[in-house]
Write a structure and sequence with these properties.
Number of helices: 13
CATH class of the largest domain: Alpha Beta
CATH superfamily of the largest domain: HUPs
Shape: globular
Radius of gyration: 27 Å
Mean pLDDT: 87
Low-confidence stretches: 1-23
Strand order of the largest sheet: 5-4-3-14-15-9
Structural class: alpha/beta
Largest sheet: 6 strands, parallel
Number of domains: 3
């Protein structure tokens, strides 16, 4: 390699370093200083990324006041957030509500209200419930937030420009409660397999996302990141379904207008998943929050694992956005061994839950009574029993004895060699 004006072999006045010619010692030292500075800067950025933690709950439908099911997911996320704060990590905890969709519009109209008016009245119920349960979130996001609308439209446009969104016609059996279509194979006697309600047959013009294009990408993702789908017992079920083949899914509606308009066709509004899932990314577009993406973990219920582990990563890949690290799907709660739900009339509202033995005992019971990820059963008797036996008697007795010893002998800090730095 020869540089005009510098004679080959004129060392020590010329130096070759990775293709750069440094003409004197001063320049060389300056260059090494620059490299050292860049290295330290990258190291700081790396350490910051290692010392951050971003946890999310799903955004809940505000079509009624929150209940035990909402509380369980939110408490779990809150515990994770607190644990990471104890480890001196910079934590971002996101929760919120999905204000859009046909279900919200239908419920609002049935009550004689406009959709926005209806959801605005329910949002304080959620915020109040989380305050009563000592849930300390960092942002409460809503799909009606202006910054979210902007990000949704940007991602839709990116996917459209990449050729992954196209216009078609959708027809099939639809469950408004699930905001999802079902195939004949999935239907149980003409009813939704989850809500056990009669399905509607719908046919309308719709834009579709080319999910079928991402089969190999998804299977590779699951292989490279074995913890992406958690817990492990849910992983193989998703893999098996993806291996069977993927169908493109609908991303827009024209039959109602309560939603975010598509940037490339204003007659259509974004269908639930291309609106709801993007909230996790929206929250990190706020100034100062960019460092938190990708999310460390999305905590969800097992009924929406398909959308979070199949739709969501495919959407992100299409838009050129980094994948979240993990999706953890917990189980469902029954009440006295019966499925909990509004239709069954046995949903445990938050005031009732904390009225039994207080917020701390409710939090303890929900996370103590069943392995996280499995289904659980709730009863007032079980909660009271754990409160009395494990908290009041065992833990209370331990605290009482330790307090007595402290009063008698005093207390001093000692080194614990069992703990690793």
């Amino acid at each position: 390699m020869h540089c005009p004006g510098i004679e080959p072999g004129s060392k020590p006045y010329s130096y070759l370093w990775e293709g750069f010619i440094l003409t004197d010692k001063l320049t060389m030292h300056a260059f090494y200083l620059l490299v050292t500075f860049l290295y330290l800067h990258l190291l700081v950025l790396f350490m910051k990324s290692k010392n951050k933690f971003y946890v999310t709950t799903p955004i809940y439908y505000p079509n009624d006041v929150p209940h035990l099911g909402h509380a369980y997911t939110s408490i779990a996320a809150d515990v994770l957030a607190r644990w990471n704060k104890v480890q001196n990590k910079d934590v971002f905890f996101l929760t919120g509500t999905d204000d859009h969709g046909k279900k919200i519009e239908s419920t609002a109209l049935a009550k004689g209200k406009k959709p926005k008016e209806f959801v605005d009245a329910l949002i304080p119920e959620f915020k109040s419930a989380w305050k009563k349960l000592n849930i300390e979130y960092d942002r409460f996001i809503r799909t009606t937030d202006k910054d979210h609308e902007k990000v949704v439209q940007e991602i839709l446009q990116k996917c459209y420009d990449n050729g992954d969104i196209y216009l078609g016609v959708y027809e099939g059996l639809y469950c408004t409660a699930c905001e999802a279509y079902y195939t004949e194979r999935e239907v149980l006697e003409g009813k939704c397999p989850i809500h056990h309600k009669a399905l509607e047959y719908l046919k309308e013009e719709s834009y579709f996302f080319k999910l079928s294009k991402y089969k190999k990408f998804l299977l590779d993702l699951y292989k490279k990141n074995s913890e992406f789908i958690s817990p492990k017992n849910r992983r193989q079920e998703i893999i098996n379904r993806v291996e069977e083949g993927l169908k493109d899914f609908s991303v827009s509606r024209t039959s109602f207008d309560w939603g975010i308009k598509l940037p490339f066709d204003k007659k259509h509004i974004a269908y639930v998943w291309f609106d709801a899932l993007i909230n996790y990314y929206t929250a990190t577009r706020e100034k100062g929050k960019e460092k938190f993406w990708p999310a460390d973990v999305h905590i969800i219920g097992k009924d929406i694992i398909w959308f979070h582990t199949v739709y969501w990563p495919a959407m992100l890949k299409s838009a050129g956005i980094e994948m979240p690290k993990k999706v953890f799907a917990h189980g469902w709660w029954t009440v006295h061994n019966e499925k909990m739900g509004k239709s069954a009339g046995n949903a445990i509202k938050i005031d009732k839950l904390i009225g039994i033995a207080g917020a701390d005992s409710a939090r303890y019971f929900l996370l103590r009574s069943t392995p996280f990820g499995d289904d659980g059963n709730f009863s007032e008797e079980d909660l009271v029993a754990r409160h009395n036996d494990e908290l009041a008697n065992k833990l209370g007795n331990l605290v009482s004895r330790v307090a007595a010893l402290i009063e008698k002998y005093g207390i001093e800090k000692t080194e614990n060699k069992l703990l690793k730095n």
